[in-house]
């Protein structure tokens, strides 16, 4: 086996306990509910027979560990139960809505990288200048601004006043990719601001560190131009940092998407989980939380693999 | 390292016990040297006062409806205008400050109450306990924080306190991880070994030697977390999972303002700016404390 395959295998081994804990947290949400979960899940006007049936279906009469393993076994086979309100399959609900959320998150990640990374480079190469200060200030604003407020402002400006973008709604990417991207633009911009801020900041400090290091000084002493140093040596060395940070942003983006999907009426999983939380539709809440945590764990794995390909030292060290 | 920085000036002039005096001096010197921190602290002090004194200084009761003055723009009678039920926006903003600060401190307090003891404990004991708990921490950290908070709130039942318990639950592993890493560094320090040699109990070691020396990065993290908690409260209340109407919250105000944004666009600015400024202030304070506690960190 080569180093990268070995690393993937080892990382998968490390991810199993993480996945077990995460799934257990999702599973135990049922037990956080005040009162008997069977009664809650049976709905408001359930007969005692129906409650008993629910108790049996979900195995609430069994030991917790057995319940967890049964639940996990079903979840692995995409059996996430049915919604308490619409009686639809939770797995189907997620499959229908996930593409909208993924589109938003990927779009925001791309926008955030396109804007954030150059800002970080510009700030680092002109350290202490007015531009550097401006970028640093914008970055601290970007971390503190509530995305959903920014979303509302974007709607009033670009949709209600200037009619450049639609205010709310979404189009499925599969049906019409261009329309889908058009509709997703405003929410993706609002979503990307945090990524821009974090990337600009982190790229700046990582690049400053590399540019200040011994070997860059040696290269400079040998007469290499600053352009060549930046592109050939500086950025190559911060690529791993950039990728890692971008990967970590996925977690943050899913968080913000929950609120922004409500602002823009995007029928994604974020909108569905907050709606279901309001209605105590716990199987749907569990299904979405489970699916998102799996996506995040897999993204981290992907980032690790890409890092190992970019920098062989990473593969050797893990 | 940071510890020596704090104690050397005191040790040369007086016994270490008389630390409070130089500390107080330092406080004003710090504010003088860092204008951003000074402004942030002044703003937050005013905000806390405004929140506490809201019943006395608010021009109207927060829930008083005036159906003749719906969605009014700012005027002399209503400095920030009125909402869709004719309630005074300034008054609701002041009462909202109370909920925002309560929420932020509650969530972070819960995070600290769980995360710090767990982190110190597993860092100190090590072994399989540490291995096991570290996997638990990783498992919780894998969740997008707000998704976890929404899910836990949904299960516990909607409302501000439950929502903030959920956010605190998402914070706890972050603090535990920092605290664990710090404890690992500190517990091998010479003075801890010395204390151990003198027969200090485990409890004494943890409380008197490890905790005070390991807590500094947590103080920075906690200050920054207040901003995150504030934004989470606003977001959850925007989704109606947090503060419940008719109680006032900045996020809830934004949700209502958004409904009527075409009729009264001015209504969305005040709550949004309140959230932004408060989050900025917590962040600036956190960054400043980081520099203060660790002089090797460069500002920027």
Kindly describe this structure.
The complex is a heterodimer of chains A (318) and B (300). Chain A has 318 residues and is mainly alpha-helical. Chain A has helices at 3-32, 37-42, 48-58, 64-76, 90-125, 130-144, 147-161, 177-211, 214-221, 226-263, 269-278, 282-310, 312-317. Chain A folds into two domains: 3-76, no CATH class; 90-278, MetI-like fold. In chain A, 79% of the residues lie in helices and 0% in strands. In chain A, helix 7 (147-161) crosses helix 8 (177-211) and helix 7 crosses helix 10. By secondary structure, chain B is an all-alpha fold. In chain B, 73% of the residues lie in helices and 0% in strands. Chain B contains twelve helices and no strands. The model of chain B is unreliable at 1-22 (pLDDT under 50). The interface between A and B is large, with 57 and 46 residues.
Number of strands of chain B: 0
What's the overall geometry of chain B?
elongated
Cα shape of chain A: globular
Give the topology string of chain B: H per helix, E per strand: HHHHHHHHHHHH
- Classified by CATH, the class of the largest domain in chain A is Mainly Alpha
User: How large is the share of residues in beta strands of chain B?
Assistant: under 5%
Summed over residues and divided by their number, the pLDDT of chain B gives a mean of: 87
Structural class of chain A, please?
mainly alpha
- Which structural class is indicated by helix and strand composition of chain B? mainly alpha
Uncertain regions spanning at least 5 consecutive residues of chain A: none
> What fraction of the residues of chain A are assigned to beta strands by DSSP?
under 5%
**Termini separation of chain A:** 15 Å
- Tell me the name of the CATH homologous superfamily of the largest domain in chain A: MetI-like
The termini of chain B sit apart by 21 Å
In total, how many domains does the architecture of chain A comprise?
A: 2
The count of DSSP E runs of length 2 or more, i.e. the number of strands of chain A, is 0
Largest sheet of chain B: none
